Amino acid sequence: MALLNDLINLNLTDFTTKIVAEYIWIGGSGMDLRSKARTLPEPVSDPKKLPKWNYDGSSTGQAPGEDSEVIIHPQAIFKDPFRGGNNILVICDAYTPAGEPIPTNKRHAAAKIFSHPKVEKEIPWYGLEQEYTLLQKDINWPLGWPQGGFPGPQGPYYCGIGADKAFGRDIVDAHYKACLYAGINISGINGEVMPGQWEFQVGPSVGISAGDELWAARYILERITEIAGVVVSFDPKPIPGDWNGAGAHTNYSTKSMREEGGYKIIKKAIEKLGLRHKEHIAAYGEGNERRLTGRHETADINTFKWGVANRGASIRVGRDTEKEGRGYFEDRRPASNMDPYVVTSMIAETTILL
């Protein structure tokens, strides 16, 4: 009798040209990912050649029951690390039957900004640092923490090794390799300051692809934690008190910033960001006020400041950028639960179009 794993791991390419396409979209909370699969007659590499599909929006909090159909448009394709072969993951955005983007579709507005001639000319690069916390499923408490208790204080856990310092590395490494397999431009991982907290980085990615890749990486992470029986949290401050929160630091540069004399452009861009600080904070993730306190490597949520190598600033400029007179900067304000379509396009809009 075949084992379940044998059936899950069947290589379909030996038997059929048909493939499985897993369509992925963002649910009603703006953070919950949903997906369902369909069979296609042959391999596809261009999202424009994929059929549109639909789902019951009344079951995701995105449509009323009497008019529940939501249409999903394929936008980006990644290899499926779970099914392997020619099977694919498909990042979609969601529309009404009349073709209007639904409120949780933030990709549509971002794509408009990234297709603006001034933005296209600047070829904006992004490096997104996604922090997250692994939780024990039944008690909703960080992985590796004693039930109902606390580990030793922060200090030994950041980039730490050992069974008493690093909790969940098998999940983290599985995610890293799965993202590389999928074609996501994942550039690294590390253990974070709070035990049970980790980070992965996506980028450098250009324009709208940064958002597509981060959402795909989040999807893969949630699927892996599902297999492992662990919960992943993107809450910006999962544990109150003297513990670091979780952010999504966003590294950014334009063509002008990367060229000779780019430091002046960087400083001008930072000045523009300061003028729209409140607007950016409002769009940078729910619950961020619990994280941006001025402690634990953050600037206070009501204060905008920048500095070179200053991890307590809103915007950090690296020593190399200052020394070379060109490069990139890091916006440290976004929360771990931010929408990358919103954050990346807003930074481009503020620094290039305004």
From TrEMBL:
Residue ranges of domain GS catalytic in the record: 106-354
Its EC number(s): 6.3.1.2
Catalytic activity: L-glutamate + NH4(+) + ATP = L-glutamine + ADP + phosphate + H(+)
Gene Ontology terms describing biological process: glutamine biosynthetic process
Presence of keyword GTP-binding: no
GO molecular function: ATP binding; glutamine synthetase activity
Superkingdom field: Eukaryota
Annotated signal sequence range: none
GS beta-grasp domain location: 19-99
Region feature (Disordered): 38-66
Pfam families referenced in this protein's UniProt entry, alphabetically: Gln-synt_C
Alphabetical list of PROSITE patterns matching this protein: GLNA_1 (PS00180), GLNA_ATP (PS00181), GS_BETA_GRASP (PS51986), GS_CATALYTIC (PS51987)
Alphabetical keyword list: ATP-binding, Ligase, Nucleotide-binding
InterPro entries, per database record: Gln_synt_N, Gln_synt_N_sf, Gln_synth/guanido_kin_cat_dom, Gln_synth_cat_dom, Gln_synth_gly_rich_site, Gln_synth_N_conserv_site, Glutamine_Synthetase
Cellular component GO terms held in the UniProt record: cytoplasm
Coiled coil, from the record: none
Protein family according to the UniProt entry: Belongs to the glutamine synthetase family.
Name of the protein described by the UniProt record: Glutamine synthetase
